[in-house]
Amino acid sequence: MVLNYASRLFWKRSLIDKKIKNSHALMLANGFFYQTCKGQFAFLPLGQRVLDKLSLLIEAELNNIGGQKCSLPSMAPASLWKRTGRWQEYGSIMFKLKDRERTEFCLQPTAEEMMTDIVANYGTITPGALPLLLYQTTEKYRNEERPEFGSIRCSQFLMNDLYSFDVDKATASETYGVISAVYKRILFNRLGLNETRMVEADNGDMGGDVSHEYHLPNVAAQDHIGVCNTCGSSRLWGPDVTCEPCNTVMQKMPTIEIGHTFMLGTRYTEAFGAKDEGGVPYFMNCFGLGVTRLLGASIDLLSSATIMRLPEALSVFKVAIILPKPISTSSASLDFAYSIMNDLDDFEHLKDDILIEDRTQKSVGQRLTHLNQLGIPHIFVVQAKKSYKPHDTIRIEYFRTEPRSFELIDCGILNHSQMFDVLRNIDRK
After folding, report:
1. For position 328, what pLDDT does the model report?
2. Adjacent-strand bridge partners of 324
């Protein structure tokens, strides 16, 4: 069993900067990342744990429908982007550079060109392999004019992008529906973000004729959608604010876009010659979830100004055990705590997800406060007394935290057996 000890973590709790927005301030204060310069962040061990959990969760769902993981270079030659005309269309939002031979490259904000070029040149895909679903979770780059709000709008960000190739428009439409359903499962079922809104959108410079955006409510308000309080429908905010089904005025909701999906048709496959055995260009879709943006938007949605909360599936650790302060007259409680730790091998589903809060120079109250601020769902405190009689039972205090609830939930006093029952039944997802 891998146990994580608080005393050994590269982690420093700092004061919250009230001049910056919520998720940005909370992630800095809780040691999730370090700002290296405007628009760029180095993710530190605690933040990286959460990013890894989110990436693996998304990838597991894509693997379940036949997705295959790749890893494409961050840098792409300009020649690829010029074949679709997007080298010019992207303009200054794209980071552009030249190598020592003066060949032009870009830092990719997305990878339709490169992925299609690979499919076109790798060889004919057998009909039984369709739809072909290729995805990656890699860094992307945008030369933002005003990077702000931490991981919400930054120059370098982590994105999961999937590209599908089908034999015709009808099967491409079916694939689009399948992956859209996976996105809903990720956002609603796995992450519990029931406020997510899916709205029709413009395809813009991506091409194609069908597009949807996924939005979460967010006071940072990069975007706005209209929401009907009568039927619950929603759409991008625009000049016409009338709900068509209800003929009522929609309410304006500030949101942040966390995902975007497109039916691209044959724009890219024709440009690169990605064709089936009969010489017909494949029909292509693409799907993107902003991993770092989704993390920041989730924290904004679920947290208070001072207490961070995450979807429980993404919690930094599922369990924390607070060791008692050493008492010179008795070591019984510490011995008991160490005996618990020796028995944790029985809980394989909690592997690498248990934090031992062993910073005994801090009071139990201070450590409880820090764990509450991190949003760890299950917290156990081994009680300590100055002396124990031979038949005394050492008790364990049990606390819970939950998304959208900012006070510790006191679940009472447990004995050894009851604590292990709780550990055994913690969600195994």
Report:
1. 46
2. none
pLDDT of residue 416: 87
Look up the pTM and report it.
0.93
Written as one string, the DSSP assignment of 151-165 is TTB-SEEEEEEEEEE
- Residue 417 DSSP code: H
* Residue 29 identity: A
HSE, side-chain direction, 13 A CA sphere, residue 191 = 31
Cα–Cα distance list, 14 to 27, 30, 33, 370 (Å)? 10, 7, 12, 11
- DSSP three-state, residue 299: helix
Q: How far apart are the first and last CA of the chain?
A: 18
Q: Give me the pLDDT at residue 392, please.
A: 56
Q: Cα–Cα distances in Å, from 350 out to 235, 319, 374, 375, 406?
A: 41, 8, 18, 17, 24
Residue 400 dihedral angles phi and psi, to the nearest 5°: -125, 155
Residue 58, C-beta contacts closer than 8 angstroms, at least 6 positions apart: 137, 160, 186, 289, 291
- In this prediction, residue 286 carries a pLDDT of 98
Q: Alpha-carbon distance 290 to 169, whole Å? A: 26
pLDDT of residue 386: 46
Residues 6+ apart with CB under 8 A from 125: 119, 132, 165, 276, 282
Structure tokens at 128: 């039984």
All domains in the chain, ordered by first residue: 17-302 (3.30.930.10), 312-425 (3.40.50.800)
DSSP 219-245: TT-SEEEEE-TTT--EEE--S--EETT
| Closest CA relative to residue 295, chosen from 275, 279, 316 | 316
Measured N-to-C along each axis, helices 291-302 and 22-29 cross at an angle, to the nearest 10 degrees, of 100
**Which whole-number Å values give the CA distances from 342 to 1, 218, 224, in the listed order?**
9, 44, 52
Helix axes 332-342, 416-425, angle to 10 degrees: 30
Give dist(CA 236, CA 215) in Å, integer: 10
The pLDDT averaged over each successive group of 10 residues in the chain (429 residues) is: 91 82 90 90 96 98 98 97 94 94 97 97 88 97 79 87 97 98 98 95 77 92 85 85 84 94 96 94 97 95 95 97 74 78 87 94 94 97 63 82 94 93 84
Residue 148 phi, psi dihedral angles, 5° rounding: -160, 175
